[in-house]
Amino acid sequence: MSDPNPIEVRKVAEADFPTEYGHFRIYGFAGRRGDYTEDSVAVAMGDLQAPEPLLVRIHSQCLTGDVFHSLRCDCRAQLELALETIGAEGRGMVIYEAKEGRGIGLLNKLRAYELQDAGADTVEANEQLGFEADLRGYEMPGAILHSFGIKAVRLMTNNPEKIAAMENVGIQVTERVPCNAVRSRHSARYLKTKKKRFGHLLEL
């Protein structure tokens, strides 16, 4: 069933974006639904209007991993794997959502780290702070894909909820491309929680 009040997206910027993984275009999008607003970035390579399903990674912002190279999670490794894979194929898109800490925000994520140090897993930590285990939604990535006229994707994910979310907004997922990045001993418990508590499709 279609959302009677879908999020509306507007492209506010587009620029050339050379990276170590290849030459991309970078796009800035502003989303709004009523009083709710959300900003996202997409980096894309190749012909987005080609008939073949587009390789897409939906990545949630992780300052600690993406910027500071934290080993508590596999976020940076997954982002780099996605960019490297798209660069090798010559076509694809990464949609980067501002959803730090599964949507609880940066400072609350650091508070959750404290609770994890005391023994809580990532789900328990979020819940002890008064949040749901995962506050993220994926309407914005779906709206961004629709704005490009993209109807079918090969989704690079281990998260079944992302697949369901794309199908719910009318984006056909023709293939799930695993996103199994290099892991460390520091991220072992985090990954086990992803698999056990969220049903992520991981081989541990």
Provide structural commentary.
This protein is α/β, with parallel strands linked by helices and 204 residues long. The protein has two domains: 8-62 and 73-97 and 136-198, Rossmann fold (3-Layer(aba) Sandwich); 100-135, no CATH class. The protein is 33% helix and 28% strand. The chain contains seven helices and seven strands. The protein has a seven-stranded mixed β-sheet with strand order 1-2-3-5-4-6-7, with helices on both faces. A hairpin with a 2-residue loop joins strand 1 and strand 2 (22-33). Helix 3 (106-117) crosses helix 4 (122-128). The chain is globular, with a radius of gyration of 17 Å. The model has no long low-confidence stretch (mean pLDDT 90). GTP binds at residues 57-61, 78, 100-102, 122, 157, 162.
